[in-house]
Structures are given as C-alpha cells and as structure tokens.
C-alpha cells in the first residue's frame, strides 16, 4: 500500500527541508520512497510543493489529482490552491498563517477570507498555529519541524527514530530546538 503526502507552502518556509527529513526517516525505516519537489519562484515568495510517496514499492513520485492521503499546508491559502490533490477521505493539516502574495501586496487581489472554515466544510481539517508555537520555542524558523511532527502523528509514523534523523541532519546547535519543535507538532494533532 502506497501512501502519498503533499507538502505545500511559500518559498522560505522550510517546506523542502521538512520533506527531506520526512523522506530520510521513511527510507531509514525501510520504505521505498519517492520524492518530487517544485520550487516555482520560491526565492520570491512563490508557491512551493513537495510530494512524498512511500510504501513497499513506489512506481512514481508524482501525486495525481485526488491522490494525496494528507495535504500539509505551511500557509493557509496554499491549502485551498492544492485541495483538489487530496483524496475524498484525506486529511488537511494547515498552518493558520498568512503570507500575502505579490498580487495581494500590489492591491490587484484580495486574500481569501475564512479559509479554514471553507476547508473544514469540505474535508477533515486540523488547523494549527505552527508559527506561534515556533515563536514560543524561541525561533520562528522551526515552524516547518512543528508541521513535520504533525505529519508524523497524522500518518502514524511515530515508531521511526525521528530523534536520530534530526541529530543526523540538523546543525548541532539547533538539534535540541528542533527536537522540541517535533514533539510540539506531534502533540498538536
């Protein structure tokens, strides 16, 4: 059985790093894993997506429309943008965080309202304020690892040695902070 995880966000949020940590953990646990990433103008705050598929034998890294078991959105408008990729019985984990795109900043578009309510009306949705929890831990940059913790808990992947993955892949001075962020994310779901 192949599981598909779609991570979406805005450039600079650490979406790709979270997916690489996730992929590393899944491979070390013995899964066949395929990962694909798209950086679309990520340097300028554009949309970023990463697709992680794992199981006994994965043929393709690409998640088709209606194929994701879970959609994890690092920014709430991105959840709406990518919602069609979620399976009918899938789950959305959304960071209750807003980043205005260039059209919004330029006054050419409005940021959608009541995004979380719209998502909740359509699919099983868990909203967390990863940014706030990251700031409480002392560094807003660990919001991505909080969301990684939410993925791990949502997909029942707690048996993997995530502490080892963090220790092996994060700069030593940030290991303890990232371990706290991971635990925080797991406790929020």
UniProtKB/TrEMBL annotation:
Pyruvate/ketoisovalerate oxidoreductase catalytic domain residues: 11-186
Pfam families: POR (PF01558)
InterPro entries assigned to the protein according to its UniProt record, in alphabetical order: IorB_Oxidoreductase, Pyrv/ketoisovalerate_OxRed_cat
GO molecular function: oxidoreductase activity, acting on the aldehyde or oxo group of donors
Tree of life domain: Bacteria
PANTHER family per record: INDOLEPYRUVATE OXIDOREDUCTASE SUBUNIT IORB (PTHR43854)
Full protein name: Indolepyruvate oxidoreductase subunit beta
Organism expressing this protein natively: Clostridium thailandense
């Amino acid at each position: 059985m192949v599981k598909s995880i779609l991570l979406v966000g805005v450039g600079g949020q650490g979406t790709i790093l979270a997916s690489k940590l996730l992929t590393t953990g899944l491979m070390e646990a013995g899964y066949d894993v395929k990962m694909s990433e798209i950086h679309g103008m990520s340097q300028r705050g554009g949309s970023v997506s990463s697709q992680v598929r794992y199981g006994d034998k994965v043929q393709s890294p690409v998640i088709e429309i209606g194929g994701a078991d879970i959609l994890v959105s690092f920014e709430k408008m991105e959840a709406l943008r990518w919602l069609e990729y979620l399976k009918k019985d899938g789950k959305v984990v959304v960071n209750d965080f807003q980043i205005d795109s260039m059209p919004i900043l330029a006054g050419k578009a409005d940021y959608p309202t009541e995004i979380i309510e719209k998502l909740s009306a359509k699919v099983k949705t868990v909203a967390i304020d990863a940014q706030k929890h990251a700031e409480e831990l002392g560094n807003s940059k660990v919001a991505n690892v909080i969301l990684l913790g939410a993925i791990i808990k949502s997909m029942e992947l707690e048996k993997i040695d995530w502490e080892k993955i963090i220790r092996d892949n994060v700069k030593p001075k940030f290991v303890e902070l990232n371990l706290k962020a991971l635990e925080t994310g797991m406790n929020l779901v």
